[in-house]
Amino acid sequence: MTEVVTCFLMYKKKILLLKRSNHVKTYKGHWAGISGYVEKTEEPFETAVKEIVEETGLKTTDFKLVKRGKPIKFKSNHGGKFFHWAIYPFLFSTATKKIQIDWEHTDYKWILPEGITNFQTVPKLKEVFESTRKNEYQLLHD
């Protein structure tokens, strides 16, 4: 099983989507959240923070955790290879809209969450986001 994090960075009511470059291993040209492989020596939250810093140029003081979603497990076939994924979703907030993407991406957009279906995304991106949103809603209304 390949464990990855997918982080959504929220600025006001918009979330950040990143377009994957041709230099990444999977889903080249697809839109995604901030993501990365969970190393054996890391907890998913540590990976999430590390990936946000690497992929956006933000400092750890520029964002804060809003909610963790429940892990989502699924299988995919991409490029003739089969993958078994475990995705750890996170929702973070930021007060800054300025980011600096790295080599893993060619473009970025701040979008309203309901617009996520207008993009060619990595598998399960909408469901991964909704898992953080559902928990956020429950947190606010408990």
Q: What's the short story on this structure?
A:
This protein is α+β, with helices and mostly antiparallel strands. The chain contains 2 helices and 8 strands. It has helices at residues 44-56, 125-141, and strands at 2-11, 14-20, 31-32, 34-37, 63-68, 72-78, 81-94, 105-111.
Structural class: alpha+beta
User: Mean pLDDT, rounded to whole units?
Assistant: 90
Biggest sheet, in brief?
A: 8 strands, mixed
Task: Quickly name the level 1 CATH class.
Answer: Alpha Beta
**What is the CATH-assigned architecture?**
Alpha-Beta Complex
The helix content, as a percent range, equals 10-25%
CATH topology: Nucleoside Triphosphate Pyrophosphohydrolase
Q: Terminal Cα separation, in Å?
A: 34 Å
Low-confidence sequence ranges: 135-142
Instruction: Estimate what percentage of residues fall within beta strands.
Output: 35-45%
What radius of gyration results from the CA coordinates? 14 Å
Q: Enumerate how many helices there are, as a single number.
A: 2
Q: State the total count of DSSP E strands.
A: 8
**SSE string, helix = H, strand = E?**
EEEEHEEEEH
Outline type: globular
Number of individual domains: 1
CATH homologous superfamily annotation? Nucleoside Triphosphate Pyrophosphohydrolase
